[in-house]
Structures are given as structure tokens and as C-alpha cells.
Design a protein that fits this description.
Blueprint (H helix, E strand, L loop, with lengths): L11 H13 L6 H14 L3 E5 L2 H13 L13 E5 L4 H9 L3 E5 L10 H10 L4 E4 L11 H10 L3 E5 L7 E2 L2 E2 L6 E5 L12 E5 L2 H10 L11 H5 L22 H11 L2 H19 L4 E3 L18 E6 L7 H10 L4 E2 L10 H5 L5 E2 L4 H9 E5 L6 H15 L1
Parallel strand pairs: 2-3, 2-4, 3-13, 4-5, 5-8
Antiparallel strand pairs: 1-9, 6-7, 8-9, 10-11, 11-14, 12-14
The structure holds pyridoxal-5'-phosphate.
The site of pyridoxal-5'-phosphate (PLP) has 14 residues, from helix 3 and helix 4.
Length: 402
Amino acid sequence: MRVPLASIGLRDRDIESAIEVLRSGNLTMGAKVAKFEEMMADYLEVKHFVMVNSGSSANLAMVEALLRPTKRRPFLNPGDGVLVPAIAWPTTIWPLIQLNLKPYFVDVSIESIGMDLTKSQELIDNSKGAIKALFPIHPLGNGLDSKTLNAFADVNNLVLINDVCESLGSWDQEGHVGTAGMAGSFSFYFSHHITTMEGGGIATNDSLLADDLRSIRSHGWSRDRSDAQEWSRDLTNNDSRFLFVSTGYNIRPMEIQAAIGISQIQDIDVFIAKRRSHAMEVNALLTGTGLRLIGGETLKDSTNKRRHSWMMLPILIENGFKYSRREIIAILEKAGIETRPVLTGNFLNQPSMKRITSEFFGSADLKVSDTLTDSAFLIGNHHEFTRDQIDCILKALQEVLA
Ligand SMILES: Cc1ncc(COP(=O)(O)O)c(C=O)c1O
């Protein structure tokens, strides 16, 4: 038996819809992408969803849009500080470095793996006004509280953008997490809650930002914007189809990805219910044992006011447990269960970060991030896991606990 970190997630009907696109001859961004964007905006209850070719591209486009808006003053300027968690994903951090912003790393909370706002406040207070934006990651389906994040950003006069790539389908009393603030990025890579194979997008209620994102994803041209006509009104020599109004990349999605997305998003609640039921079984087994399912306490909430969407199963080895992380992982991997670090572990310890140390700042105290690096790990929690695969996880964990 093998329990991988993720399954492919494509069902027959998803594959059929992809084949239909291939046969239609309409391959590059078009009606399917527009339809999927509409469905995502409805699902997330936001005004706009702009699809791109990955969650990483969504982060890149979001940051670019804040630096060089077409119709407003920049929200960020080169050299500005952006607060990010030390347990991060590379492509949350790289757009900042690539676009001449400064990531300020802060520790995370052991309960949620999300940015610690008390330590964030200390860092802001010590940074003499250098920090201008907040870029939290909503980790592994365990969304950070929207109201708290919004209030924090307001009090400190920060632009709030969210990396929600791991937490589609997670909500709190304010709505879907990561949709507060300027924008939130999502990923549809195949281990995530829905898949478009590769794919991602940005949710926002800001119409000007959405238009800029539509230009940025497509060379900087105007033709996909809601205000395209306005830009071409006074044209004499230029062809309105080739009017470039902003900086840009080519990070467009393809129709085939959107067709799969249209088919997948309709079943997201079924997928999340499966993931949650796996988490409940693992949590019941681990409670009180010295191994802890991080986020397990959210399963007690029966009010449905908050939903954890359980991308993976993060397990913390509490102090004094009889086995080390290495020993536990050896037992699990021997039983066929694939494991991995919590995101990247403390991202500052990655060789790439060590090579560019002069480029970043942050708090000296990253104790919790180090603890999660040394004493926690992830196992998969895909909604396609079979009963046998879940039993295999439970049996191997029982062996660790015995
Ligand atoms: C927090 C976070 N941000 C961004 C990404 C990038 O998403 P993608 O793989 O779609 O580029 C990931 C990838 O899983 C992620 O975990």
C-alpha cells in the first residue's frame, strides 16, 4: 500500500471536459477561462477572480499590480518592507525579492502555523515605518481569522494581500478566508482542494486591481480589461488589439485548465467533507498521545462558522515523545506513507536564502518556526484517498504510538 502526499484528482468527467476542449480547437485563454472565473468569483463571494497559470504566478501578478497600477499611485514602492511568515513557500517570497521589495520575516504560531501577530507588531514597531504591507500565508487549509488580519492591517496602515494557495474552501465569520484586504492568491496544483493540473488565480473586490491583473497576465495589453474601450478611445495610429498599458508577463491559463476547473469546483464541498473526515479519524487517534494534529481543535466547532479545509495533515511531536521526527518518519515511510516538511520549514534556512542574506530582515526570534521545522511533518490528505489508504495511515500511526 502506498499513501502519497497527493493523488492526481482527475475524474472521468474532468478528463472528458478537457478532451472536448482539445477537439474544439479553442485552446488559448477564452470562454472557458471566463466561465471558470465567474464560478470562482461566485464561490468566493468576491467581485472578480482573475485566473493565471499557477498560484506562484498569482503571487507575482498581485505584487506587480501593487507596484505599478495603471490609474492610481503605487501602493508599494521599491525598497518597501513586506511582512511575511518564516514558515513560507518560496514563491510567496521570490516576487518580493525579484521586484525589489524587502521581505521581513516573522515567527508563526504553533497552533495555526500562521503568522504570529504579536511578534509581527513588535517587528513593525522596531522597523521605523519600513514595513508597508502584510502578506500572510493561510497555511494548509487553516485560514487565519479575517477580522483580526484586517484590523491589524488597518491599525498599522498596511496593504493586505493574502497567499491562500493552500486554503481554498476555508472560511470564517467574515466569509472565505483570504478575500479580505486587497486580494488573495489561490492555487489549483493537483495536491490542492481542486485541480486544474497546474493553475491559480487572484480574488479581489477591487475593480481597478482586477483590470490591472488582466493586463499583467497578458503582456500588459488592454484588450481583456473592462475599460479597454476607454484606453483606445483617442487612438489614431495604434491598433486597439495591440495596446500595451501596463507591465506584464505571459502567465495566462489555457482553456483546458479552465474546463477542468469548471468541472471540479462544483464538487468542492464534497472534497472538503472527505478531507475533514480523514482529519477527524487521525485527530481521534492522536488526541492526548504526544503526537498532535495541528488544527485538530477546529474539529470541535460544530457551528460551521469557521471551516478548516484540511489540505494536508500536519503532525507535531510534543516534547518528551519517545521517538524523534527522524524515527517516526522512518516508520511511516516504511509503511508506504510519504511525508514532507511543513511547507519549507523555516525558509531562512534554505540555501537560496542563505545566499542572499543581505536582502532580507526580520525578527531574531523564530523559535516556533524552528520547532515546526525540527518536530513536525506533513502527511497527505487527498479527498481521493481510499478506505484502505486511511486505514494504512491509522495503522502506521498506531505502531508509532504503541
Ligand atoms: C503557500 C503557497 N503559496 C504559493 C504556492 C504556489 O502555487 P503553485 O504550485 O500553483 O505555483 C504554493 C504551492 O503549493 C503554496 O503552498
